[in-house]
Amino acid sequence: MGVNDWDGTRALAMLRERMNRLFDERQTRGASAVEGAFAPATDVYSTDDTVFVAVELPGVAADDVAVEVDGRELAVRGRRNFAGGEGANYHRLERSYGEFRCAIALPPDADAAARRVRFESGVLTVEIPRSA
How far is CA 29 from CA 18, 74, 80, in A? Predict the structure, then answer.
């Protein structure tokens, strides 16, 4: 009988890693394996005076982002273009490309018309004052 080098613990850890990637993935693949719709990492927090929305958008140009308000919903949408080399053999692709959109429900006292938007170091921050 030969020696079996199967390590159940290692195999389970690898399976767990793969499952975590599957469930953590925010990307819904489109027709392309590279580009599809995704929702960027977003933080929403508030103080007594202001609601803050911070969206991670590294590699996205400010001109490729739109901030829109529809009623009490704030939406950030845009596109991150794939900058990979043609004919290259990729061994790992974890970054998301293509269209993105995230929507945030605003509290009733948020004054979205008076919002301030800034885009620094790959992070879009929207500050929405609360009405008095």
Answer: 17, 24, 14
Question: By three-state DSSP, how is residue 112 classified?
Answer: helix
Which tokens go with 110?
Answer: 């948020």
Q: What are phi and psi of 22, to 5 degrees?
A: -60, -45
Is residue 80 within 8 Å of residue 59, measured between CB atoms?
yes
Q: Could you count the other beta carbons within 10 Å of the beta carbon of residue 107?
A: 10
- The pTM of this model reads 0.70
Tokens of 63: 């001109």
Tell me what pLDDT residue 31 has.
34
Phi, psi at residue 64, to the nearest 5°? -95, 15
Backbone phi, then psi, for 61, in 5-degree steps?
-75, 145
